[in-house]
Structures are given as C-alpha cells and as structure tokens.
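Hi! If you just cloned this repository, the fastest way to understand the data is to look at a raw example. We've pasted two of them here, unedited. The first protein comes first, obviously.
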Amino acid sequence: MTTITRHIPRVSGFSAAHQDDIGLCVLAELDTAPGERWLSLFATRCEEAFSRHTSPDIRWVEGRIWFRVPSEELVPEFARLIVDAVNTAGRDEADEQAREVERARLLAQKAHDLDALLNGVNAALPEWMAGQHTA
C-alpha cells in the first residue's frame, strides 16, 4: 500500500507589509502552500493562541499569512503566536494524516480478510453444487 502524505507548512520568515493608523501589517511566509484542512486548523489555532488579544486581524493573502499588530512592541509576541499556531496546526495535520493512514490500513486489512473468506466460499462451491439437481 502506498501512502501519500502532504508537506506540512512551516514559517520561513516574516516581512513588513506596511504601516497604517491602526498598526503594523506583517506577512508570514510559509515554505509550502497549505491545503484547505490545514487552513481550517490554523484558523482554529489562531483563535486559541490570540485569545487574550482583542479580535486580531489575521488573513490568508496571496499565499501568505497577513496579520496586523497594534504596536511595535507586540510584533515579537504576535510573530511567536503565529509560529505557534502554524506549528500546532501542522501537528494537528500530521495527526490527521496518521489517522487517515490507519483508516486506509484497516480498510485494506478488511478487504484482505473478505477476499480470504470468499476464497473459502468459492472453494466450497463445487461441493455445495454437487448436491443440487437442475431442472
């Protein structure tokens, strides 16, 4: 059985997008484009990681994570929280991939067991048919 796993994104760096009256806008670059499931996991993890901050503005923009930081002093903390959310979403994705592999293994085992059972049934078929009379 071949198992295909998806690469799990990691933060490869940060860059400034711009500054406005509301705060600093920062981009987090990822080393690979994430899938939809990872983005969903990341969103959940951001909600948890930023729970003590008032409605952080975090978006997925053109293949990068865009987030607004209200003050320069908070840039390191926000960046760390983004990295934590990315890494935790990655672990969640890896766990989900492992569960998929296990489900596939169990399904393959069930198919193998059914094949073995049907081989036994097919082996008994001539004996069962020997007692039958056709009209």
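Ok, and the second one:
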Amino acid sequence: MRVFKEEQRFTQWWLIAIFTIVILGILLNFFSYEKPLQQFSTFSIVSKTIGIIIGVGIFLVKMRTRIDKSGVEVWFSPFRFTRKSFTWKELEKAHTRKYKPVTEYGGWGIRGLNKPKAYNVKGNKGIQLKTRKGRYFLIGTQQPDNVDRVIRRYFNNSEQ
C-alpha cells in the first residue's frame, strides 16, 4: 500500500440518541401550543437555532487522514484550520496502539490543548506520533493494520 486514506464520522449510536433528544426538545419547545413563537426573545430563537445547527452539523464533520511518501496529514473537514501535517523527517516515532480515549484524552474530537494532542472520532485504536521536538500527537483510526503497512513502508525507510 502506497497511500493510506481514511474518513471517519461521528456515528456512535449513543451520540445520535443524545443529539436527537436535544434537537427534538428544542423543536418541541419552539412549536409548543402554550407558547406562541412571538413570545420567544431574539436571543432564545438564535440560541436554539445555533443548537440545532451544531446538533446536525456534528454529523456532517469528517476526520480525514492521509499517509503517503511525504508524511502524515489529518484534519476535520470542512474546517481546514484543523489541518496537522508531519513529514517523516520531523518524526522520531510512529506506530499504532490501543489507547483509552476518555482517561487519556478526555473523550473524542480535537483533544489536549496544551498537552499531548489527539484527533479522534471513535474507537480506541490510533496512530501515535512523536516528533523530534518531543511532542506527542495521536490520530484515531479504524484500520490499524493498513496504517502499520504504510508506516513500515515510509517511516522505517526515512530513518536510513
């Protein structure tokens, strides 16, 4: 395998259930017969609309990972500002491992602001990177075997 590409979405059943309940609650509150729409303040309407947009939007976000001859790249699409790139020469270590998302990183998503960072969406398998500057970065993956093949191909050859 020369290029590894992976797309992941937030598709956990419990996350879908939580957001469905929240969105239904907001919509029921909007359209309840006891409170006509005119009684809601502008702030209330805007905040509820933002809640619905975030609730639906979380399921449109994709975490994309690409590993090729130039290095490792990950980002949350459509947010290009989340892009992280590592060349093979920047990395001291690269390997897959099991991890504990909640206890090690506090959950899923973009985690670890001033400490070891992680981009993950689901599961407990990831690509552990350590830069030559001593910084750690973990990228969640659902395909650790394919990642291992690509890392062996490029990372081990770049060390020579």
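That's it. A detail worth noticing about the second one: The radius of gyration is 20 Å.
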